[in-house]
């Protein structure tokens, strides 16, 4: 039997936490349109960036705000941060993230990580690197294209022009 609140009524039902879509610069870029009416980034670029962000978060690469006290009082083998303390999911995410960084190369990886993983805006990236205006958008676009190619994502489905002709013949 459900528990009743002190007033004799049922407690309010729990709802899922709201998802904040305005948080991601990629979502903002996908909603914005250029002068020609096309989105500033393609769905493939957005998907690649979100996939990188998911791996980054799953791998536990987000910086800590406070001290990590979980390693205190445990032996060296069980200390937090040792290879034995990571789950297979975390290790797989770290591997996927490292492969994506290798595919991006040192020229593009910093900008892509700043925007996709650390959620920095384009103007922030440009001011931190002392780049001219709108440069980060171009560099990010190139990086997201390379990342989408690494993940095997494309803006359009492409296949062979024609299917091979198949015929069944009766044995002669």
Short description:
By secondary structure, this protein is mainly alpha-helical.
Q: How is this fold's topology laid out?
A:
Elements: H1 25-31, H2 43-58, H3 88-116, H4 122-129, H5 135-151
Tag the structure with descriptive keywords.
mainly alpha; 5 helices; flat
Tell me what the structure shows.
The chain is mainly α and 172 residues long. The chain is built from 5 helices and no strands. Helix 2 packs across helix 3 (88-116), helix 2 crosses helix 5 and helix 3 (88-116) packs antiparallel against helix 5. The chain starts with 24 loop residues before the first helix and ends in a 21-residue tail after the last helix.
- CA distance, first residue to last residue: 76 Å
Radius of gyration (Å): 24 Å
User: What is the number of beta strands?
Assistant: 0
Strand content: under 5%
- The low-pLDDT segments are 14-19
Biggest β-sheet strands, sense, barrel: none
Which structural class do you get from the secondary structure elements?
mainly alpha
Overall geometry comes to flat
In DSSP terms (H or I, runs of 4 or more residues), the helix count works out at: 5
Name the helicity range: 40-55%
**Average pLDDT level:** 80
Order of helices and strands: HHHHH
InterPro entries: DUF6456 (IPR045599)
GO molecular function: translation initiation factor activity
Pfam family, one: DUF6456
Protein name: Translation initiation factor IF-2
């Amino acid at each position: 039997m459900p528990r009743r609140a002190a007033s004799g009524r049922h407690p309010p039902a729990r709802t899922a936490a709201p998802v904040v879509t305005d948080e991601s610069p990629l979502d903002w870029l996908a909603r914005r349109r250029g002068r020609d009416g096309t989105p500033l980034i393609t769905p493939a670029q957005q998907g690649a960036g979100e996939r990188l962000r998911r791996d980054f978060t799953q791998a536990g690469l987000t910086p800590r705000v406070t001290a990590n006290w979980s390693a205190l009082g445990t032996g060296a083998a069980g200390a937090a941060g040792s290879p034995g303390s990571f789950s297979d999911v975390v290790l797989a995410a770290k591997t996927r993230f490292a492969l994506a960084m290798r595919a991006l190369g040192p020229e593009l990886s910093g900008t892509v990580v700043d925007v996709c993983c650390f959620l920095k805006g384009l103007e922030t990236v440009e001011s931190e690197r002392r780049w001219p205006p709108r440069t980060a958008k171009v560099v990010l676009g190139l990086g997201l294209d390379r990342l989408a190619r690494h993940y095997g994502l494309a803006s359009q489905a492409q296949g062979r022009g024609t299917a091979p002709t198949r015929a069944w013949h009766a044995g002669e």
